[in-house]
Amino acid sequence: MRYDYDHGRRDGLRLALAALAAEEAKWAVLLGEVSLR
What is the C-alpha to C-alpha distance for residues 17 and 24, in angstroms, rounded to an integer? Predict the structure, then answer.
């Protein structure tokens, strides 16, 4: 049971980091376009 909990928590963390990276990339593109103008 403990393994399942740790595994699920790790998957959740990985998902959160992936979402954060995608959000950061989106903003980098948006801010890059703004600064180029």
Answer: 10
